[in-house]
Design goal:
It is a single chain. The protein contains 18 helices and ten strands. It is an alpha/beta fold and about 450 residues long. It has three domains: about 190 residues, 2-Layer Sandwich (Beta Polymerase, domain 2); about 140 residues, NAD(P)-binding Rossmann-like Domain (Rossmann fold, 3-Layer(aba) Sandwich); about 80 residues, no CATH class. The strands form two sheets. The chain has a six-stranded parallel β-sheet with strand order 7-6-5-8-9-10. A hairpin with a 3-residue loop joins strand 2 and strand 3. The longest helix is centred in the C-terminal third of the chain and has 33 residues. The C terminus is likely disordered.
Length: about 450
């Protein structure tokens, strides 16, 4: 049983690569089933967000290239493109990575809370797919515990430094007062909800929410006394937006350069602030070439949030200690699991010996032998059988002068004998003995 992590993140891959390999929600289940059908894979989970696409798997053979090759072919991105960007971690390194991810320590925005929910959803999707076994279940439960402890016992989340906060901050820097600004939100998920809250705190009062499911758009718009529209109506509403925030799971851009050009003409070239928080992107990159448009992607916003990052660094150092303790706990569990086959084999051996001696005693009682003598022979026979192999091993270690093996056996058998008092004469060679005798 070997734990592996294979993937890429914002630390190694630019947004242009991440959006090509990102998995849409409807791709996750079939992808998980593909993974566990690979020869070495016994358990699998997939985590795909704006900043990362990674798989956490359990394999029989960690050197088998099949899982890595499978990852290289995701969405036909091409192994030549991905090979230098993909990381692969094993064992406790893989566990530490997931614990840090769940705790917000590996995020583009240090300590951001959204990733914890995304990790939980990743686990739940894999559980529903039937690809989570004993190892991944333990791994994810430990990651949840680590994330909760970090959030509770450190100040890592005290200052808002999320991408949503960064988008709201940048819009204020460009427009100053947002009291009269019209905010157009594209999508209605958690990121958009968080951005709406930050924009409202910044003074925004006019909201339009566009979503594929209009009822969900209405639900969010009602919270801000706003207006709800469908995605198909976006071209007719773009000219009203002073601030445009997008975060959907669309496979292709929803807003093209031509639509923005028409909106700018209707606005008489009054500027528009755009923050595209989606991967793959919702807004065509060419839109950034237009005058009067301030377009920011997730990668662009990373610089904005650095101002609040310093206050979180001390808390991050504390969080790393918490993660380290959780990793050690997971390693102990993993070590224990490695001993399970040995434990089962030894227990089976003892039970077979017991049953053999018991059947012999039952036969003796059946033919009328004295019960006291039968019990005595049973106890004596069971003792001899169970102690035979350990005693042979101890004698062999003694003859070899193997103090380390004897010490290990003392601990294994829970004996009180002080092995430091054992004198090994085997250190003396035959030539040495003849010299002494002469």
């Amino acid at each position: 049983m070997h734990l592996l992590t294979i993937g890429l993140t914002h630390r190694t891959a630019p947004i242009g690569v991440r959006e090509r390999i990102a998995l849409a929600p409807e791709q996750l289940l079939p992808s998980l089933h593909e993974l566990v059908n690979l020869a070495p894979v016994t358990e699998a989970s997939l985590l795909s967000t704006c900043n990362r696409t990674e798989m956490f798997i359990v394999v029989d053979d960690p050197d088998n290239p099949a899982p890595r090759n499978w990852f290289m072919q995701l969405n036909d991105a091409g192994s030549d493109l991905l090979a230098p960007l993909v990381h692969q971690l094993r064992g406790t390194q893989a566990a530490r990575h997931l614990f840090r991810v769940a705790s917000g320590l590996d995020s583009m925005i240090l300590g951001e809370p959204q990733i914890f929910g995304q990790v939980k959803q990743s686990y739940e999707t894999a559980r529903q797919a039937g690809t989570v076994g004993k190892c991944l279940n333990q791994l994810y439960q430990q990651s949840f515990a680590a994330a909760k402890e970090v959030r509770t016992d450190t100040a890592i989340g005290n200052n808002p430094v999320s991408v949503a906060f960064a988008a709201a901050t940048m819009s204020r820097r460009i427009f100053g007062d947002l009291d009269d600004a019209c905010v157009l939100l594209v999508g209605a998920g958690e990121t958009i909800e968080l951005t709406a809250r930050h924009l409202q705190k910044a003074g925004a009062k006019k909201f339009i929410v566009a979503n594929r499911t209009v009822s969900r758009a209405e639900q969010l718009a009602n919270e801000y006394s706003g207006e709800a529209i469908s995605l198909s109506m976006l071209p007719d509403y773009l000219h009203r937006a002073d601030v445009l925030i997008t975060s959907t799971a669309a496979d292709l851009p929803l807003i093209g350069k031509g639509a923005v050009e028409r909106a700018l003409k209707q606005r008489r070239h009054r500027p528009i602030f755009m923050a595209d928080l989606a991967v793959p992107r919702d807004i065509e990159p060419e839109v950034s070439q237009l005058g009067d448009v301030y377009l920011y992607t997730i990668d662009d916003l990373q610089q904005v949030v650095q101002e609040n990052m310093k206050s979180r660094q001390a808390a991050a150092d504390e969080a790393e200690l918490i993660v380290g303790e959780r990793v050690r706990g997971f390693q102990e569990w993993l070590n224990g699991e490695q001993a399970v086959p040995l434990v089962k084999a030894y227990r089976g051996q003892i039970e077979r010996t017991r049953d053999e001696q018991l059947q012999r005693a039952i036969k003796e009682l059946t033919r009328g032998d004295d019960p006291e003598r039968v019990l005595s022979r049973f106890a004596h026979g069971l003792t001899n059988k169970l102690s035979h192999d350990p005693l042979v091993a101890i004698r062999q270690a003694g003859r070899k002068g193997d103090l380390q093996a004897l010490s290990a056996m003392r601990q294994l058998l829970n004996l009180e004998a002080d092995t430091a008092k054992i004198n090994f004469q085997a250190d003396t060679t035959p030539d040495d003995r003849s010299d002494h005798e002469s």
